[in-house]
Write a structure and sequence with these properties.
This protein has 1 helix and 15 strands. It is mainly beta. The chain has 2 domains: 27 residues, no CATH class; 149 residues, Jelly Rolls. The strands form 4 sheets. Strands 8-10-4-14-6-12 form a 6-stranded antiparallel beta sheet, with no helix packed on it. Strand 1 and strand 2 form a beta hairpin. It is globular and about 55 Å long.
Length: 194
């Protein structure tokens, strides 16, 4: 069943009602943002014996100015044996966070028919990590055979550098790392709310 209502003056939208209960059908916010073409994904995988402390999986992310939008980020992954996902945020101190370069890696739009681009600068290979110290560590968690979690829900600061790193202390490991990013054009990036 469908109903129609006014979103604002001159703009009407249709909403879907559940046939049995007549309750408004809703979707998770992440799905709604993806439906709007504002959901993006970064992924990488390391084969068996290619994922260890000397060869982590990383994504270097630079957010644009607040006027572009506000970004919500989650990270997850899986590995044959225990591994760790860490998220670092540049605090402006060079001896805490010194990350440069890398080959540009374009986040894929989760709506594969959308032409929207993320507005982020992202790299995954060739990134030079001079420092990513505990002073800049803002989230950490364990990932294993059954996959990691998306507990790392963060609203990213504008004009800020981030490093998402998955590290294994087992030299015979393999794994994958996934970062989900959702751009909110209607949120105030300085407070996370409109």
């Amino acid at each position: 069943m469908l109903i129609q209502g006014w979103v604002r003056k001159g703009i009407a939208k249709i909403a879907r009602l559940d046939t049995g209960s007549h309750a408004l059908v809703t979707v998770h916010a992440k799905d709604a943002w993806a439906h709007e073409g504002n959901g993006y994904i970064l992924t990488q995988r390391k084969a068996l014996n290619a994922f260890d402390i000397a060869s982590p999986m990383t994504f270097y992310i630079v957010t644009p100015a607040a006027t572009v939008g506000c970004y919500h980020m989650t990270a997850s992954g899986c590995a044959n044996t225990a591994a760790y996902i860490e998220i670092f945020e540049d605090d402006g101190t060079a001896t805490h966070f010194a990350i440069t370069g890398g080959s540009a890696y374009v986040p894929l739009n989760r709506d594969r028919s959308s032409a929207n681009t993320s507005g982020l600068t992202t790299c995954k290979t060739g990134v030079t990590i001079g420092y990513a110290t505990a002073d800049c560590l803002i989230s950490t968690g364990v990932m294993g055979r059954n996959g990691g979690t998306e507990e790392f829900a963060l609203i990213l600061k504008p004009s800020t550098e981030y490093l998402v790193r998955a590290t294994s202390y087992d030299e015979n490991n393999e794994g994958s790392l996934q970062v989900n990013l959702f751009r909110h054009d209607d949120l105030d990036a300085s407070h996370g709310m409109g």
